[in-house]
């Protein structure tokens, strides 16, 4: 039985990570299955407001990956907290166009991590998004079910 | 984490890469790969911006968004063109790759490991790599209709259009007369060469003497045809046989489940399920079927049907797995406690609402039987 397209593609990505490693500040924490991977992300450089902090980014892949975007959230549990960022809700949901209408199947898991890393790196103020509490109270478990509106491209 | 022996990678049949001292060969190797599936192109096509992908990959991607995955330019499915030169290049590259890998090894006697890893790669290499093996084993599995000729080169040629058929006639190797039999370039049914033009003209009806494997579906098609007649569409197709012609996508918003079922039964596919199920099945089938027309190594219809069934069942498994996870989590004590702590405020709110509602109802229905209340108390 042939493995589904998504698994083959993810195996190639894993192979690539194994051969070439991940970019600095990004570490593959776990990839126990072809459904869910967790990366650790830290922001490099002296001037970042997230110095010394490490965040866990969880990617959930569906059977239609890479045609469809994976489900990406920052982990919010005892060990890891989502970063304080105007586009990251306290439940770990992320408002980023690359995870919505700007996803492209030529991208991959590491590309998502790099985007998140640079999104954090360019941030200057540690705040939650407007309406965080209201959103978190009503948000679906899967952030892909939220209708996002991408308007701020400064961070 | 330790990546040196990842359990998930044991199943990967990736062929060995070129040694790092040959960056140009590595680049060439990469250039033969579709950027969506990261595998060597299968049925490569080019879209209006000039980027190339596997036919099935770009068709699935355009289903989700009408943009080029590489450059974001707006593209439509209509701009997809088969890229025969690229296909030939990929085929030739796949064929010569093992040789080049061997040549790229340093001349001095190499220790065993790279040698075995290579031979393992070429033996167990994936679907795409295997199809070019000179033994033709992959080829044989693809020709379920049983009407294909044996040698890989010949069958590949035979699938090409009429123009190239003439080339082959000019070839000195194969001297054919009018009475010789040859496979039809479109449907692969074997027949005398002289009757091929008329046969194509008629839209590839099956030869009378040899009923095809899918001849059984005559009845289903008839049913579909009648449905078409009744819905005022007319018969459209000239024959009852599956036409090897691109399927035009129906307007899903305007189609009734019966319309979708009619199209599905035309290709003898399952017609069970509600409209979303039918729609996703048909969408996937159209991608499989249309992209199969963009390659010189087409799969048989039954192989395509098997692929469709496989992807449908893997999707179903995925759905049910998610459900199982939640259920399993709730089954363990820790998981339940965690879930409870996460949802505590919501529970509280719902509890209050239910208590209040109960109270109101009690006030209103004072004096009536108690049985009902027990049913409502779900705390």
Automatic annotation (TrEMBL), chain A:
Keywords: Ubl conjugation pathway. Transmembrane segments: none annotated. The keyword Nucleotide-binding does not apply. It holds the Pfam family UQ_con. Coiled coil: none annotated. SUPFAM superfamilies: UBC-like. Residues 5-155 form the UBC core domain. This is Ubiquitin-conjugating enzyme E2 W. It comes from Kwoniella heveanensis BCC8398.
Automatic annotation (TrEMBL), chain B:
Residues 252-286 form the SAP domain. Residues 34-72 form the RING-type domain. GO terms for cellular component: nucleus; Rad6-Rad18 complex. Keywords: DNA damage, DNA repair, DNA-binding, Metal-binding, Nucleus, Transferase, Ubl conjugation pathway, Zinc, Zinc-finger. Its EC number is 2.3.2.27. InterPro entries: Rad18, SAP_dom, Znf_RING, Znf_RING/FYVE/PHD, Znf_RING_CS. Residues 97-163, 309-328, 355-379 are annotated as: Disordered. GO terms for biological process: DNA damage tolerance; DNA repair; protein monoubiquitination. Pfam families: SAP, zf-C3HC4_2. One of its GO terms (molecular function) is ubiquitin protein ligase activity. Residues 133-153 have a biased composition (Low complexity). It comes from the Eukaryota. Belongs to the RAD18 family. This is Postreplication repair E3 ubiquitin-protein ligase RAD18. It comes from Kwoniella heveanensis BCC8398.
């Amino acid at each position: 039985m042939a493995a589904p397209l998504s698994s083959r593609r993810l195996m190639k990505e894993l192979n690539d990570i194994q051969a070439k490693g991940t970019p600095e500040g990004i570490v593959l924490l776990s990839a126990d299955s072809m459904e869910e991977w967790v990366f650790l992300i830290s922001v490099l450089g002296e001037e970042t407001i997230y110095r010394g902090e490490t965040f866990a980014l969880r990617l959930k892949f569906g059977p239609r990956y890479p045609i469809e975007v994976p489900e990406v959230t920052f982990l919010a549990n005892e060990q890891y907290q989502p970063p304080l960022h105007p586009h990251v809700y306290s439940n770990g949901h992320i408002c980023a166009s690359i995870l919505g209408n700007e996803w492209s199947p030529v991208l991959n898991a590491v590309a998502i991590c790099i985007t998140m890393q640079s999104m954090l790196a360019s941030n200057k103020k540690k705040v939650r998004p407007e309406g965080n509490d209201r959103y978190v109270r009503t948000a679906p478990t899967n952030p892909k079910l939220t209708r996002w509106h991408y308007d701020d491209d400064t961070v | 984490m330790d990546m040196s022996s990842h359990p998930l990678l044991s199943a990967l049949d990736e062929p060995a890469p070129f040694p790092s001292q040959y960056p140009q060969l590595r680049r060439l190797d990469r250039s033969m790969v579709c950027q969506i599936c990261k595998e060597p192109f299968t049925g490569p096509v080019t879209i209006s911006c000039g980027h190339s992908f596997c036919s099935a990959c770009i068709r699935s991607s355009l289903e989700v968004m009408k943009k080029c995955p590489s450059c974001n330019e707006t593209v439509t499915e209509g701009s997809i063109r088969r890229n025969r030169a690229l296909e030939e290049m990929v085929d030739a590259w796949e064929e010569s790759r093992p040789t080049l890998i061997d040549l790229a090894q340093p001349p001095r006697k190499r220790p065993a490991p790279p040698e075995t890893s290579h031979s393992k790669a070429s033996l167990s290499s994936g679907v795409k790599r295997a199809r070019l093996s000179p033994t033709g084993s992959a080829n044989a599995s693809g020709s379920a209709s049983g009407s294909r000729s044996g040698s890989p080169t010949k069958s590949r040629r035979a699938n090409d259009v009429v123009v190239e058929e003439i080339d082959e006639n000019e070839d000195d190797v194969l001297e054919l007369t009018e009475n010789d039999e040859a496979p039809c370039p479109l449907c692969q049914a074997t027949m005398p060469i002289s009757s091929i033009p008329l046969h194509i003209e008629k839209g590839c009806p099956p030869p009378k003497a040899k009923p095809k494997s899918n001849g059984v579906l005559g009845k289903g098609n008839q049913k579909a045809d009648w449905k078409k007649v009744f819905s005022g569409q007319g018969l459209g197709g000239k024959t009852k046989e599956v036409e090897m012609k691109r399927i035009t996508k129906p307007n899903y918003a305007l189609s009734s489940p019966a319309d979708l079922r009619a199209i599905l039964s035309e290709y003898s596919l399952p017609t069970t399920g509600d409209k979303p199920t039918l729609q996703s099945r048909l969408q996937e089938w159209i991608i499989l079927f249309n992209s199969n027309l963009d390659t010189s190594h087409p799969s048989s219809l039954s192989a395509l049907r098997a692929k469709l069934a496989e992807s449908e069942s893997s999707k179903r498994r995925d759905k049910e797995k998610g459900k199982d996870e939640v259920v399993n989590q709730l089954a363990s004590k820790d998981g339940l406690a965690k879930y409870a702590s996460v949802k505590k405020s919501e529970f509280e709110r719902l509890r209050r609402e239910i208590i209040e509602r109960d109270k109101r109802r009690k006030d209103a229905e004072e004096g009536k039987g108690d049985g009902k209340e027990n049913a409502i108390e779900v705390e």
